[in-house]
Design brief:
- A seven-stranded mixed beta sheet has the order 3-2-1-4-5-7-6, with helices on both faces.
- The protein folds into two domains: 10-109 and 215-318, Rossmann fold; 115-213, DNA polymerase, domain 1.
- By secondary structure, it is an alpha/beta fold.
- 43% of the residues are buried.
- α7 crosses α8 (163-172), α7 (147-158) crosses α10 (202-213) and α8 (163-172) crosses α9.
- α2 links the parallel β1 (24-27) and β2.
- The protein is globular, with a radius of gyration of 21 Å.
- Helices cover 39% and strands 13% of the residues.
- The protein has helices spanning 10-17, 34-41, 53-61, 86-92, 109-112, 138-144, 147-158, 163-172, 179-190, 202-213, 215-229, 243-256, 289-294; strands at residues 24-27, 45-49, 76-79, 98-104, 230-240, 278-280, 302-308.
- It has 13 helices and seven strands.
Length: 322
């Protein structure tokens, strides 16, 4: 049975966004709509994005839960697109600025718990991992890429220290067709003790999934899109689930806040060269013990939130021009 997706840090995200009645908010990662539901209940108008057609189809199959779709004008608009496309998608809807944006990065419980999506090795399924069900699958990549390229992906996105050994095992096991095939190859390379706290295949599955969906590039583009879209005083809330994602968000907000790199940690911080586009709202927030007990998948979550200033969005390599 497919588990329900439980939105992580829900109360904290809504508190960070503090939506007023009539506020225009973007849910950049709709999923099962947990954040959207609470935002709508608070009186906000929501534009929700999801590149997974299953997420959009689930709404269409359960319209009673989403009466706001039928409001005139609608208080909920769904966009079956990547959240990196927020600026152009909202421009098509006549929207240039919004009051809030929430991004919940990573794979959803629905995707993890459906073997046919190929995201996990808890049950054998086709080696797919595509969030948008388009483009090359995980099997396409692993069965055709050079050993060195596979090793680089495992090291960069899975922080797998024995990436070359694992890549060699993957190439030797070709053709791989299922999640079980991949898990078996990784376990053979690294050793596997049933009942161990963490399966050695976990890092490789994360790495391949991130690569297939270009997740980190998508996150970087989505953050720059948020900088362009948020109005003065608008709020950004981003929930991440591993260090690679959190590092990107932390660095983005640090640079957007006007910080510049120091030549030495013993020297004072260099004054900002331009006005900051964001100010920090809170320090990083992590789930309580009670939430982790209710939802173990929340354990690794981190929320970072910030408020948009009135400074122009950065352009060029720094951001997307307003």
């Amino acid at each position: 049975m497919t588990a329900l997706h439980v939105p992580v840090l829900l109360d904290e995200v809504v508190a960070a966004l503090s939506p007023l009645s009539g506020a225009l908010v973007v849910d950049a990662t709709f999923g099962a709509g947990g954040y959207t539901r609470r935002l709508l209940d608070a009186g906000a108008t929501v534009h929700a994005f999801d590149r997974d057609p299953d997420a959009i189809a689930a709404v269409e199959e359960n319209p009673a839960r989403w009466p706001e779709l039928g409001d005139r004008p609608p208080r909920l608009t769904l966009h079956p697109r990547r959240f990196s496309e927020m600026v152009s998608a909202l421009a098509e809807a006549g929207i240039a600025r919004v009051d809030g944006i929430v991004m919940d990065i990573g794979v959803s419980s629905m995707q993890l718990d459906q073997p046919e999506r190929g995201f996990a090795f808890s049950a054998d399924g086709p080696l797919d991992m595509r969030m948008g069900r388009e483009g090359p699958s995980a099997a396409d990549f692993l069965n055709t890429a050079a050993e060195g390229e596979i090793a680089d992906v495992l090291f960069r996105y899975g922080e797998e220290r024995q990436s070359r050994r694992v890549a060699r095992a993957i190439v030797a096991a070709r053709p791989l067709g299922t999640t079980g095939d991949l898990a078996k190859a990784v376990r053979r390379a690294l050793g596997y003790r049933p009942g161990a706290p963490k399966d050695p295949a976990t890092r490789s599955f994360q790495a391949v999934r991130i690569h297939v969906n270009a997740e980190l590039e998508e996150l970087e583009q989505g953050l720059r899109a948020a900088e362009t879209l948020l109005d003065n005083g608008g709020r950004l809330a981003v929930v991440t689930f591993h260090s690679l994602e959190d590092r990107i968000v932390k660095q983005f907000l640090r640079e957007a806040g006007g910080a510049t790199a120091r030549a030495s940690r013993h020297l004072p911080q260099t004054p900002a060269a331009r006005a900051p586009t964001f100010t920090a709202l809170t320090k990083a927030i992590r789930p309580s013990e009670a939430e982790v007990a209710r939802n173990p998948r929340a354990r690794s979550a981190t929320l970072r939130a910030a408020v948009r200033t009135d400074a122009p969005a950065r352009s060029g390599e720094e951001g997307i021009a307003a």
